[in-house]
Amino acid sequence: MGSSSGQSSGSYDFSFKILLIGDSGVGKSSLLVSFISAAVEDLSPTIGVDFKIKLLKVGGKRLKLTIWDTAGQERFRTLTTSYYRGAQGIVLVYDVTRRETFTNLSEIWAKEVDLYSTNQDCVKMLVGNKVDRDSERAVSREEGTALAKELGCMFLECSAKTRENVEQCFEELALKIMEIPSLLEEGKRNILKQKPEYQAQPGGCCSS
Ligand SMILES: Nc1nc2c(ncn2[C@@H]2O[C@H](COP(=O)(O)OP(=O)(O)O)[C@@H](O)[C@H]2O)c(=O)[nH]1
Ligand SMILES: [Mg+2]
């Protein structure tokens, strides 16, 4: 049992798995840290990957987002199928100051996603990170918009450093996921799957 931080695991409506994908150094881990900030419940890292949990309220629903980050193995392009399995949302990140991270998204990462993601309805968000370094920009916003359209993704530019658009990224993704019935169903099922481990007390009041 993890230490409880006052938020009982039964206190949310849907539970979604979100992935961060993209080249090494684009800021995936920074985005995650930036988003999680104070309210974080750390879980022990699994082999090769690390994930964090964020509880938040979006569109009147209480959500548990399990956000998976790579542990650097993207450098060797060896993300495993289990990393992709069961994801409802995928954040594809590039660095607006490094053009090759943008081209690698369309040439490598988007193809991997198509190959390995188990749910074809999975919602994707293209994110151009590091917009705080605007003078070094190597990919225009228009190019980002065009690629997003081509890949069928939502699109945002953000900065993990200034936190510009960081919350919007995950919230808009969650909102979109909730518009898709099959994903919503999975989000509900994820909770049922998680329940027995944590909620053993039948009928009783469990907190305090
Ligand atoms: N200026 C700036 N630097 C960033 C931003 N996000 C990440 N970085 C830096 O980019 C480097 C790589 O970030 P990291 O999160 O480790 O990338 P990852 O390999 O994709 O997980 C680190 O030195 C970060 O401090 C950002 O939005 N703006
Ligand atoms: Mg990282």
TrEMBL record:
Gene Ontology terms: biological process: protein transport
Topology in the lipid bilayer: Lipid-anchor
Pfam families: Ras
Key words, A-Z: Cell membrane, GTP-binding, Lipoprotein, Membrane, Nucleotide-binding, Prenylation, Protein transport, Transport
InterPro entries: P-loop_NTPase, Rab, Small_GTP-bd, Small_GTPase
A GO cellular-component term linked to this record: plasma membrane
UniProt-annotated location(s): Cell membrane
Keyword Cell membrane: yes
This protein's record includes keyword Plastid: no
NCBIfam families the record matches: small_GTP (TIGR00231)
Family statement drawn from the similarity comment of this UniProt entry: Belongs to the small GTPase superfamily. Rab family.
Function statement: Intracellular vesicle trafficking and protein transport.
UniProt-recorded name of the protein: Small GTPase superfamily
UniProt organism field: Corchorus olitorius
